[in-house]
């Protein structure tokens, strides 16, 4: 087992450029498992990931490859998540590697996340191996895309394999590139232990399983380890590698990638980015780059009508055991009763959690509008951080407010530049500059308020550019902003679950759009129901749901019993999903409506 024959690498790409498909092929080609088995067992093993076509949690697989030079190599493929919400996890898994395959779609060329991921890989000094994928497609333009990669990223593409991950064309050349170009790891096996946790997941039987890269020293079962960021100590139970299934070994050494278990109860105790060392013989310095992940987006999660508060709490607790980035605490809403304030890395992370509550726990929940963290300076000099609009102090007590701003890069064909600029303008963006990538493609740099980005920026960008533009962002900091609380009143009662913090200039537009939407989703009652939007005591928009005149059944003239029954059933079903707010019944979908853009 020659250490020189280890290669640790990741695959980086823009979403949908073929990362998972190539991973499948590499695994298949090295004879690990059939791709079908692989799919259900190795990468992407959450249903949700597969259905959404994205990779949420990263894992590592060990492949054995007999290269053309006659030697056998251990190739550790470390999977990376493919979404901007999980940038930190991507950066940690790249930190576990010496090289990265950069896969670029031959029909699309470089996209925003291609670049973002390349920068992350360069930060870690990785050897980057370009691979051009999807050459089977008639619209593929591999030579142009190669030239683009050379121009924009500045890496040599002369030897870049042209492949079809789908058809399995030229996969071997990718494996050969890995063997010949990715550097072998350093291997000081006698030094004090230094290992990086690049992922951790919770397993019902084993507790937390940490996926680790050993940089120095050796780790064995029975060893007392210390996690340097949290200071916690544990005794190692098992170490091993993943070759389709977890294979237990007697040790992992410098250069190796594998897993460890140590009766750890919660992923928060062994978080991504932490350094593991031996308690009795610690390494001097932790690995660089440890960061505590901070949620950027908050929303309320409430049990829907008929759902139990405790079941929601238990479900959130279970999810949290496996997701160090999810935070929650109890809160109450006048409109919705007892629920939780939850913090997420971003909107996608939020959607994933909501869907898991629904699918894995079969829970019906109501989510309130997502919010970012605002900084509020009070007249008395006290600075508050507010992530729930309901907690905003009265306007008279506020000196000023600040909101988070992101640096955004948008890559687009030149045809859409006008449209995108208009969109960014509309989202209170400030234009920074525009770079030409090639004659027909540019990258636009903007600063945008995060609060506009989480609202609907992705959707709007996608629909306005027919999916041709791609987008990436990072947090820049806080700036002062003229923000106000927008309240919604139903039948003259303020409904806290609908409250939003918005820019003053946007208040009217948002208020109007929400009242109009609510009129459509709230059913008519026996009395007229006014729907109003207000800033402070000032009503800025108003709609009215007219009173119901006749019994709905009156519409079903005569004796069409089945139709009548259907209608009654429909009503009953509708009932179940209603929230009573004062004397008005509000359907659950109303809460979603507020979040959606037109
Ligand atoms: P994320 O996991 O979301 O980051 O996407 P990904 O980069 O892993 O992409 P994935 O492998 O899921 O592929 C995206 C789509 O492209 C799928 O529908 C694949 O079937 C398709 N695809 C991947 N490789 C090829 C290829 O070589 N040729 C063609 N025609 N389609 C491909």
UniProtKB/TrEMBL annotation:
<protein>
    <recommendedName>
        <fullName>Elongation factor 4</fullName>
        <ecNumber>3.6.5.n1</ecNumber>
    </recommendedName>
</protein>
<dbReference type="InterPro" id="IPR035654">
    <property type="entry name" value="LepA_IV"/>
</dbReference>
<feature type="binding site">
    <location>
        <begin position="16"/>
        <end position="21"/>
    </location>
    <ligand>
        <name>GTP</name>
    </ligand>
</feature>
<keyword id="KW-0547">Nucleotide-binding</keyword>
<feature type="domain" description="Tr-type G">
    <location>
        <begin position="4"/>
        <end position="186"/>
    </location>
</feature>
<dbReference type="InterPro" id="IPR005225">
    <property type="entry name" value="Small_GTP-bd"/>
</dbReference>
<dbReference type="InterPro" id="IPR004161">
    <property type="entry name" value="EFTu-like_2"/>
</dbReference>
<dbReference type="GO" id="GO:0003746">
    <property type="term" value="F:translation elongation factor activity"/>
</dbReference>
<dbReference type="InterPro" id="IPR031157">
    <property type="entry name" value="G_TR_CS"/>
</dbReference>
<dbReference type="GO" id="GO:0045727">
    <property type="term" value="P:positive regulation of translation"/>
</dbReference>
<dbReference type="InterPro" id="IPR006297">
    <property type="entry name" value="EF-4"/>
</dbReference>
<feature type="binding site">
    <location>
        <begin position="133"/>
        <end position="136"/>
    </location>
    <ligand>
        <name>GTP</name>
    </ligand>
</feature>
<dbReference type="GO" id="GO:0005886">
    <property type="term" value="C:plasma membrane"/>
</dbReference>
<dbReference type="Pfam" id="PF00009">
    <property type="entry name" value="GTP_EFTU"/>
</dbReference>
<comment type="similarity">
    <text>Belongs to the GTP-binding elongation factor family. LepA subfamily.</text>
</comment>
<keyword id="KW-0251">Elongation factor</keyword>
<comment type="function">
    <text>Required for accurate and efficient protein synthesis under certain stress conditions. May act as a fidelity factor of the translation reaction, by catalyzing a one-codon backward translocation of tRNAs on improperly translocated ribosomes. Back-translocation proceeds from a post-translocation (POST) complex to a pre-translocation (PRE) complex, thus giving elongation factor G a second chance to translocate the tRNAs correctly. Binds to ribosomes in a GTP-dependent manner.</text>
</comment>
<dbReference type="Pfam" id="PF00679">
    <property type="entry name" value="EFG_C"/>
</dbReference>
<dbReference type="InterPro" id="IPR038363">
    <property type="entry name" value="LepA_C_sf"/>
</dbReference>
<keyword id="KW-0648">Protein biosynthesis</keyword>
<keyword id="KW-0378">Hydrolase</keyword>
<dbReference type="InterPro" id="IPR009000">
    <property type="entry name" value="Transl_B-barrel_sf"/>
</dbReference>
<dbReference type="Pfam" id="PF06421">
    <property type="entry name" value="LepA_C"/>
</dbReference>
<dbReference type="Pfam" id="PF03144">
    <property type="entry name" value="GTP_EFTU_D2"/>
</dbReference>
<dbReference type="GO" id="GO:0005525">
    <property type="term" value="F:GTP binding"/>
</dbReference>
<keyword id="KW-1003">Cell membrane</keyword>
<dbReference type="InterPro" id="IPR027417">
    <property type="entry name" value="P-loop_NTPase"/>
</dbReference>
<keyword id="KW-0472">Membrane</keyword>
<dbReference type="GO" id="GO:0003924">
    <property type="term" value="F:GTPase activity"/>
</dbReference>
<dbReference type="InterPro" id="IPR000640">
    <property type="entry name" value="EFG_V-like"/>
</dbReference>
<dbReference type="InterPro" id="IPR013842">
    <property type="entry name" value="LepA_CTD"/>
</dbReference>
<dbReference type="InterPro" id="IPR000795">
    <property type="entry name" value="T_Tr_GTP-bd_dom"/>
</dbReference>
<dbReference type="InterPro" id="IPR035647">
    <property type="entry name" value="EFG_III/V"/>
</dbReference>
<dbReference type="GO" id="GO:0043022">
    <property type="term" value="F:ribosome binding"/>
</dbReference>
<keyword id="KW-0342">GTP-binding</keyword>
<comment type="similarity">
    <text>Belongs to the TRAFAC class translation factor GTPase superfamily. Classic translation factor GTPase family. LepA subfamily.</text>
</comment>
């Amino acid at each position: 087992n020659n250490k020189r024959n280890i290669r640790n690498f990741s695959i980086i790409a823009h979403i949908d450029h073929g990362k998972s498909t190539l991973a499948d092929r590499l695994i298949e080609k090295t004879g690990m498992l059939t791709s079908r088995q692989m799919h259900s067992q190795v990468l992407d093993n959450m249903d949700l990931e597969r259905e959404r076509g994205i990779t949420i949690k990263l894992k590592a697989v060990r492949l054995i490859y007999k290269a053309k030079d006659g030697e056998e190599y251990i190739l550790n493929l470390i999977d990376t998540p493919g979404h901007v919400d999980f940038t930190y996890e991507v950066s940690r898994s790249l930190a576990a590697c010496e090289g990265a395959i950069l896969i670029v779609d031959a029909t699309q060329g470089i996209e925003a996340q291609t670049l973002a991921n390349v920068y992350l890989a360069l930060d870690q000094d990785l050897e980057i191996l370009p691979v051009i994928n999807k050459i089977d497609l008639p619209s593929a333009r591999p030579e142009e895309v190669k030239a683009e990669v050379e121009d924009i990223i500045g890496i040599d593409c002369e030897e870049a394999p042209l492949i079809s991950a789908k058809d399995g064309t030229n996969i071997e050349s990718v494996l050969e590139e890995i063997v010949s170009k990715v550097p072998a790891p350093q291997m000081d096996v006698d030094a004090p232990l230094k290992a990086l946790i690049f992922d951790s997941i919770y397993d019902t039987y084993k507790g937390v399983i940490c996926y680790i890269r050993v940089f120095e020293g050796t780790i064995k079962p029975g060893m007392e380890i210390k996690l340097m960021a949290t200071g916690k100590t544990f005794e190692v139970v098992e170490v091993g590698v993943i070759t389709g299934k977890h294979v237990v070994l007697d040790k992992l050494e410098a250069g190796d990638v594998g897993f460890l278990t140590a009766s750890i109860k919660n992923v928060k105790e062994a978080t991504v980015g932490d350094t593991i060392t031996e308690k009795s013989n610690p390494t001097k310095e932790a690995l660089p780059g440890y960061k505590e992940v901070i949620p950027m987006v908050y929303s309320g999660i409430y049990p829907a009508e008929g759902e139990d508060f405790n079941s929601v709490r238990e479900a959130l607790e279970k999810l949290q055991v496996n997701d160090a980035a999810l935070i929650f605490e109890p809160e109450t809403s006048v409109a919705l009763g007892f629920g939780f304030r939850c913090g997420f890395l971003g909107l996608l992370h939020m959607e994933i959690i909501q869907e898991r509550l629904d699918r894995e726990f079969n829970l019906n929940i109501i989510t309130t509008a997502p919010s970012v963290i605002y900084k509020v300076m009070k007249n008395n000099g006290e600075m508050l951080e507010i992530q729930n609009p309901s907690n905003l102090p009265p306007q008279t007590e506020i000196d000023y407010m600040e909101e988070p701003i992101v640096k955004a890069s948008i890559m687009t064909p030149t045809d859409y530049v006008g449209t995108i600029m208009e969109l960014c303008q509309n989202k209170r963006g400030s234009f920074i500059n525009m770079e030409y990538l090639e004659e027909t493609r540019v990258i636009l740099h903007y600063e945008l308020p995060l609060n506009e980005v989480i609202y609907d920026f992705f959707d709007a960008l996608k629909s306005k550019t027919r999916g041709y533009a791609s987008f990436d962002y990072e947090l820049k900091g806080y700036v002062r902003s003229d923000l106000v609380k927008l309240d919604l009143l139903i039948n003259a009662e303020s409904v806290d679950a609908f409250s939003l913090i918005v820019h003053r200039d946007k208040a009217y537009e948002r208020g109007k759009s929400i009242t109009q939407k609510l009129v459509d989703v709230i059913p008519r009652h026996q009395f007229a129901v006014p729907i109003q939007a207000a800033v402070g005591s000032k009503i800025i928009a108003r709609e009215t749901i007219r009173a119901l005149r006749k019994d709905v059944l009156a519409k079903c003239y005569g004796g069409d019993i089945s139709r009548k029954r259907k209608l009654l059933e429909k009503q009953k079903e509708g009932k179940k999903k209603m929230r009573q707010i004062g004397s008005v019944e509000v359907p659950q979908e109303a809460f979603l409506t507020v979040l959606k853009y037109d």
